[in-house]
């Protein structure tokens, strides 16, 4: 405990009102950049930094005190204490003393084997182009030594290390990934938030004294290129002063030119406002959207955090993950794939295997993913499990197919050949393939005859088409 005489519960911040006055001032426009106003109309007009659409694939990391019980879900505290779900109550009765409090899990969140360089190398090997770390989930525990958390943070409790800084340094020193941070706006059991909620959010003690100062602290100290907000607690964006904060972020912050933000900035803002849309967890519309979007999903089908009670069938296979990536990118989205490390800071073998498999697949087929655009049709309407991306400047269309036809021939119903100009290649194979077509139909591609060891990859393939309509 930091200060034995301080008896406040975790989550109550040290107040810093002189500093907060700066946060409440209107944002000043940056020289040479548009002066974005603290309104959604102005903020939503900001162009999305180009890097995000080109990246296509990122890794989400959910890591916090919830990884200690590692049972059921990262919502463990809520399900146990608030909803009193029988399986959670029984789990606690069978494994912990009757008067055990959730805060007592804090010292057991040791991060003893956490090595930021090892994490960074694995993330690089996955083929991802950005990473988003949960700096604070709804439990309120921060992975950096926030000045506004009392001692409910990773520097004062548990690891006694600045996890955010260690990973930031490793990512920026060892990889080409963009560094992003997740932050939950609300906290389930913070007394200030609960008091504000009881006033129907007419009081604003929590955002003024904790949430906003922490966000400014995160951006200033760690310079994230993705700021992934979550958890509005039922409060509107006016309660959070989201537009005021975003105006500062886009006008004055150290990442004003490169940062991207999502759509979870208050009740009613999701899939409506923000730099890109997430709409809902595991969102995968299956068609092209007019606004940039992201499919955030989990390797563990049931949880974002680490679960000791997960079985092998609870994890998505590499075939299912490749399918998710291909479908998402073909419809204009990015895939943000989540893993949950253990409380001692290791990434379990099942997660490591999937990450390395994705990297292996992208080493061959990344040309059809990174930096691509949607085509006129996201998928083939004749042959199932065929999806399209394009690079218009290079006059290229990619047909990504998930099943190798036993006949050795793949019919593409959407593209139309331009005779004398069209070529077809299998990525990772190199040689031009033979094809046939007519004015009324698509293209029949003769795939190469390969042994199992000659296939360029195992879980999906991509054809490069030049000069097709």
From TrEMBL:
GO molecular function: alpha-L-fucosidase activity
Source organism: Chrysochloris asiatica (Cape golden mole)
EC number: 3.2.1.51
Domain Glycoside hydrolase family 29 N-terminal per the UniProt entry, residue ranges: 34-367
Record SUPFAM superfamilies: (Trans)glycosidases
Homology family: Belongs to the glycosyl hydrolase 29 family.
Domain Alpha-L-fucosidase C-terminal: 379-466
Protein name listed in UniProt: Alpha-L-fucosidase
Site-annotated residues for May be important for catalysis: 296
UniProtKB keywords: Glycoprotein, Glycosidase, Hydrolase, Signal
Transmembrane annotation, as ranges: none
Function recorded in the entry: Alpha-L-fucosidase is responsible for hydrolyzing the alpha-1,6-linked fucose joined to the reducing-end N-acetylglucosamine of the carbohydrate moieties of glycoproteins.
Quaternary context: Homotetramer.
A biological-process GO annotation: glycoside catabolic process
Catalysed reactions, as listed in the record: a neolactoside IV(2)-alpha-Fuc-nLc4Cer(d18:0) + H2O = a neolactoside nLc4Cer(d18:0) + L-fucose; a neolactoside IV(2)-alpha-Fuc-nLc4Cer(d18:1(4E)) + H2O = a neolactoside nLc4Cer(d18:1(4E)) + L-fucose; an alpha-L-fucoside + H2O = L-fucose + an alcohol
Residues in the signal sequence: 1-32
Alphabetized PANTHER family for the sequence: ALPHA-L-FUCOSIDASE, PLASMA ALPHA-L-FUCOSIDASE
SMART domains assigned to the protein according to its UniProt record, in alphabetical order: Alpha_L_fucos
Keyword Transmembrane attached: no
Any Gene Ontology CC annotation: lysosome
